[in-house]
Amino acid sequence: MTIRVLYGTESGNSEMIAEDVAIVLEQHGTVAVADLQDTDPGSLSPADLYIIICSTYGEGELPASAQPFVDRLVELRPQLDGVHYAIFGLGDSGYADSYSKGSEYLAARLDSLGAVRVGEYGRHDAAGFDDASEIATEWVRGIITVRAAA
Amino acid sequence: MTIETPVDLIPFDDPAFRADPYPFYAEARIQAPVYRSPLGVWVFTRYAEVSKLLYDRSLTVEQIEFGPASPLHDSALGADAPRHTALRRALNKWFTPKAVQVWREHAQRHLDDALTGIVERGGEFDAVMDIAYPVTFLTVCDLMGVPPLEAIGVRQATYDLGAGLGTNPSDDEVAGVADAMHWFSRHAEHLIDLNLAASRDGLLSSLLEMERLGDLTRDEVVGTLTLIFAVGHLDIGYLIVHGLHIFAEHPDVAAAYRDDAALRPAIVEEVLRVDTPEQFVTRMTTTPITIGEVEIPAGEILTILISAANKDPEVFPNPDLFDYRRDNSKAKHLAFGGGLHGCAGQVLARAEAEVVFRTITERFGGVRPAGPVVYGHTDFIRSITHLPLTLSSI
Ligand code: HEM
Ligand SMILES: Cc1cc2nc3c(=O)[nH]c(=O)nc-3n(C[C@H](O)[C@H](O)[C@H](O)COP(=O)(O)O)c2cc1C
Asked: What are the protein's UniProt keywords (chain B) (predicted)?
């Protein structure tokens, strides 16, 4: 199994978090980090675990680097039964109506194609002072624990 | 909630107000937190309303009459979604945390050069012209991928532009804005010609590539370049200068900065909160909105005082006190604005400040005052124009 950390970003925070999360994950197996825009939705495999870090942009939309992946996902509609993923959404709760809607849209698409969500939906809210990397690394430790118990 | 009062609670043009606006904000916050100024603009001083308005998508910047600064409508700062999304996208990748690691090294190099000169001259310097301006201007030129031409011209044009962006600019100030915009557009066109002749990696090349693909117009390239020239040194310069001023007056803060890396971010945030460089952001209503009990019609100008929100005692108890140990769990300061137009350069700004503050405290133990401070406050900007200092350990 490879743990694949995939990020969708607009202003680089998700990319930075993906790299920090990967450092934690390296203690638990082989890890590969990739931008969602360089990822083929047809290649998602039940043999791997996917850790998705994704922000929200525009008016509750996907960030630039996640958009092509989701477009292809919707177009190809690959069968994702048995594909396990965990998701961490970055957003800003100041946008009350569209808080974290981008990553939630991505998660909903994966779910509708049969993918299995692992653990809690992780979140970072840019309206506060919380350090995104700290929250995300703690969250991913939780994911590993849930996964180990499964 | 009173709306119209005989005394002007926020006298934007009054020299006493400009010297120290904070007591005026405090009074307005009590008497009329939603205040209709005699200038005809609505003024907000409480954190609750200010933070909410920053995220209100019904407000426009695009429809505000910018007068001679109208070319800025061709930059992210003056555009609404969806045009804003595209213009902002053109910038984002140059300011990511990863990209900033590179610009941080550039800032360090420019600072080291500046400090070498200062040490050779005996350790006395003007924080504005010898440190803040060269470090930030040279770094942002590197980022744009343009040669650092016309440094003094860029600085002057930015000031003239800033002076005219207040609530009630004089005829001279408006004329100054027109000249500054004209100057910037000529300068930008010149840099574009140079870039087309010998392409250099950087923001400008990427904007020109977007123009070639039809994703941006030439006016948008020029507007964006003008914006980045201005914001690349203005507020960040004030952050650096305000910080060094505090270090000079309170050597204990400089020592805390030097000795405890964990405190550094909080010290910088507190510098931004306690005297916020850009005092307000401006928006216009497109439909009637209700704030508290006050209904504001469509087409009204809102002066959203992020600086006053940063001094709201409901959120920041004892707000005028510089206290980097304060509990910020309730809310974060709004010096970078927020929402769609929230500062695109904040990662860079924090990195540049860190480079300067760390180097000066670690290498020289801080700074000492070396003469009278000269202020250039307007109603829009908290400005120090001259800050003479000496490196402590020289
Ligand atoms: C301490 C330093 C800085 C402060 C306090 C600051 C503050 C602000 C504020 C308050 C706004 C919002 C304006 C509005 O809502 O109308 C803003 C926007 C912006 N800032 Fe900064 N800024 C700083 C440094 C920088 C730097 C170094 C850059 C880049 C070189 C930068 C780039 C921008 C851009 C491009 C926008 C427009 C964003 C948009 O409209 O989408 N800023 N900044
Ligand atoms: C123009 C703009 C629009 C945004 N829109 C939303 C939004 O609708 N909902 C949300 O939760 N966050 C929104 N955000 C906040 C970002 O998701 C947040 O800043 C995040 O940390 C960015 O991560 P990234 O750098 O990986 O893209 C927006 C930010 C910007 C600059």
From this structure: Heme, Iron, Metal-binding, Monooxygenase, Oxidoreductase
